[in-house]
Automatic annotation (TrEMBL):
Membrane-topology annotation of the record: Multi-pass membrane protein
Highest taxon above the source species: Bacteria
The protein's name: AI-2E family transporter
InterPro entries tied to this protein: AI-2E-like (IPR002549)
Entry-linked PANTHER family: PERMEASE PERM-RELATED, TRANSMEMBRANE PROTEIN
Keywords: Cell membrane, Membrane, Transmembrane, Transmembrane helix, Transport
GO annotations of cellular component type: plasma membrane
Main location class: membrane
Naturally occurring in which organism (per UniProt): Candidatus Curtissbacteria bacterium RIFCSPHIGHO2_02_FULL_42_15
Residue ranges crossing the lipid bilayer per the database entry: 12-30, 36-54, 66-87, 137-163, 203-220, 226-245, 252-275, 295-321
Similarity comment: Belongs to the autoinducer-2 exporter (AI-2E) (TC 2.A.86) family.
Amino acid sequence: MKEEKTSLRIEISYKTIIFTALFVIGIWFLILIKEIIILVFFSILIVSALLKPVDWLTAKKVPRVLSVILVYILVIFVIGFVMGTIIPPLVKQTSDFASKTPQIIDSVNNFLVFHQIPTENISRAIEGQISQIAQNFISISTAIFSSIFLILTLFVLSFYMLLEWKTLIKLVTSPFSGKQEKLVANIVTKVEYGLGRWVRGQLALSLIVGVMTYVGLRLLGIPFALPLSLVAGILEIVPIVGPIIASIPAILVGLASAPILGLAVAALFLIVQQIENNLLVPMVMSKVVGLQPPVIIIALLIGAKLAGILGAFLAIPLVVVAKIIAGELLSEDQKFEDDMEEQ
């Protein structure tokens, strides 16, 4: 008997080839404009934070343009007032801290020698860490000032998005019709609402952590309390590593004053972080964005792994967006199944 030979024939239609090519080109194009996508996303975050007061003023019969301008003026005034209040003592205390850095290092080194702790490379490591922090600060500041055009573009884009928000929603929903149009409009509205709550929650966390740190440092009698607590509040927005970096200069200042104060400062930052992680985050973030703490932690870790600090910062708002979209789509599918069962 002759064995029957069977051959597997795979046919690929031209439509599949075209779709695959367009998909690859689309991914390549998105990678090329990733900076613009991030810029637009940050603009949406600003819009989400400011849209509520703008809509409130508009509801009070204030023209939309004037409402946006008034909100912008209020934000600029608040930022200017805070900076005007904080910067003079901040500059003085930061300058004093920088001038006393060698003394702080010597004090820490003497403490280690007195307690017969091996000091080889420790002072050098401390100097290296302080130098690295300073270099990073200078690099970040340089990047900010060199990207002033992008910052202006961000606020101008946010201004026009606030001004034409309803028009933008209509533009996004225009390719759809009927139930799909309503679904997309609902998703956009809920995404804006969720991101706004996240921004306000993040600002609240930074403010609370900064104030708690300042009060704790003042009670301990630690010098340079204002710049150290300001650093703690600002670095609060940097997930995972931010609080750790913020504690290093404060602990060094405490060690320079007295060894026991160094331990007290370390304990203070540990307590603040425990309060934040176990009380503030569940109360603020979990409620404002509707995510459980384990989901938040996993999202932060994945974001940090994929894109560093920026990825960790954007992880939560991206998860919020994904959660809202998935929830709306699943809800729509459930409605469709219920309608089919009724028929």
